[in-house]
User: Which sequence fits this backbone?
């Protein structure tokens, strides 16, 4: 047996052969084999596009707090998808469900890989949960004090807050390195390695303080507390938005709530509500599992069913880390226009290379488009005619791309 590996014996109750528990176990494996890779692919693609779109917006204009929080969430959510959904869920159990045996379980290959991967998983979960909470708090302050919390103010402080949350997660989750390790588990005479927390139980049935801290902090500090805070903040934002809309209707009868600021509030609410809806069932199961014991777990089917239910809901909750881009695309009109702008840039480049017989003209047009993607400069908004000419140089069908560029640059200028 490798060094640093502990032996763990599981005592399953005789009455645990019911179909519901077995179906849950199969559901966990199927979800992590099919659902987890789909969530990872869509999530990483969406988060990468989110970072690219807001970076493009900052290069054409400047950073704002909404963009800062969206990019910070995209980075943290991508980290969760990599360490939790892909490495832990798909590689750890999804492949085993497909092939019938463990294929590539990275966290069970060595005690140090077990500790480091669990440490990164806990830290990124903490960062992602509380970044969303602070994002919602920022939206609440913005709708409550619109003049003080204008979109381009406190950008540096927002970056510092996002970095502080990530650093705080690394600090608070540092005991994970000390308490996690490899254990051997035997099921029907088949031995396998598993990365688990070492409870170090005493004769009195008490686990170590570090193990209790990690278990309860992950359950209540990473899942339950952010869910409750997010629900409270979302309710406060909804109440404030209703108040603002009533005031606007009284002062400006017939006005419409289709402006940029309102769409950003709706996008934040959609992300927050989705987070709460996916987290609430998991929080309920976590609270119910506290009665199953740690050092002396109750040999009941209820506890084993709750264990499998928690794993299933944990995998389903990963959807909340993959939907932000698609929510922005639905609710924020300016974000949709940014996506169209980015696609237009890529399309123009491809058309310049593939369709223009005159290479010098293609190169000149490509340079015009590249100049618009460079860091903001005083003449960027005067380059609209050059963009239109570059689009027209490709073919008659791409003339609308030049109009799209000009309209987008005009919108960004007006937002500033």
Assistant:
């Amino acid at each position: 047996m490798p060094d640093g590996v502990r032996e763990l014996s599981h005592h399953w109750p005789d009455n645990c052969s019911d179909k519901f528990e077995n179906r849950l176990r199969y559901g966990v494996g199927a979800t992590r084999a099919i659902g987890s890779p789909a969530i990872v692919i869509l999530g990483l693609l969406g988060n990468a596009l989110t970072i690219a779109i807001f970076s493009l917006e900052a290069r054409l204009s400047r950073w704002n707090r909404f963009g800062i929080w969206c990019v910070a969430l995209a980075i943290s959510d991508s980290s969760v998808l990599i360490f939790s959904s892909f490495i832990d869920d798909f590689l750890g159990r999804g492949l085993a469900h497909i092939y019938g045996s463990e294929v590539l379980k990275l966290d069970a290959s060595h005690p140090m890989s077990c500790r480091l991967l669990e440490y990164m998983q806990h830290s990124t979960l903490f960062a992602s949960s509380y970044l969303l909470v602070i994002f919602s708090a920022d939206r609440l302050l913005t709708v409550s004090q619109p003049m003080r919390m204008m979109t381009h103010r406190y950008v540096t402080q927002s970056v510092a807050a996002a970095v502080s949350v990530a650093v705080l997660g690394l600090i608070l989750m540092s005991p994970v390195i000390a308490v996690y390790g490899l254990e051997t588990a035997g099921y029907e005479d088949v031995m396998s390695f598993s990365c688990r927390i070492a409870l170090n139980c005493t004769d009195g049935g008490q686990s170590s303080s570090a193990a209790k801290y990690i278990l309860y902090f992950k359950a209540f500090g990473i899942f339950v507390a952010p869910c409750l805070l997010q629900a409270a903040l979302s309710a406060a934002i909804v109440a404030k938005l209703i108040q603002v809309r009533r005031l606007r209707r009284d002062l400006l009868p017939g006005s419409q709530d289709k402006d940029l600021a309102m769409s950003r509030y709706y996008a934040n609410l959609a992300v927050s509500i989705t987070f709460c809806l996916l987290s609430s069932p998991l929080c309920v199961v976590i609270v119910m599992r506290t009665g199953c014991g740690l050092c002396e777990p109750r040999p009941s089917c209820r506890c084993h069913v709750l264990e499998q239910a928690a794993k299933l809901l944990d995998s389903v909750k990963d959807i909340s880390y993959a939907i932000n881009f698609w929510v922005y695309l639905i609710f924020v009109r300016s974000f949709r226009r940014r996506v169209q702008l980015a696609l237009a840039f890529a399309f123009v480049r491809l058309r310049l290379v593939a369709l223009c017989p005159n290479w010098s003209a293609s190169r000149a047009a490509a340079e015009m488009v590249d100049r618009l993607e460079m860091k903001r400069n005083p003449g960027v908004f005067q380059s609209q005619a050059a963009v239109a000419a570059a689009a027209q140089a490709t073919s008659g069908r791409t003339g609308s791309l030049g109009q799209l560029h000009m309209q987008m640059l005009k919108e960004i200028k007006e937002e500033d």
About this structure: The longest strand covers residues 180-187. Residues 18-198+207-331 form a domain with the Rhopdopsin 7-helix transmembrane proteins fold (CATH 1.20.1070.10).
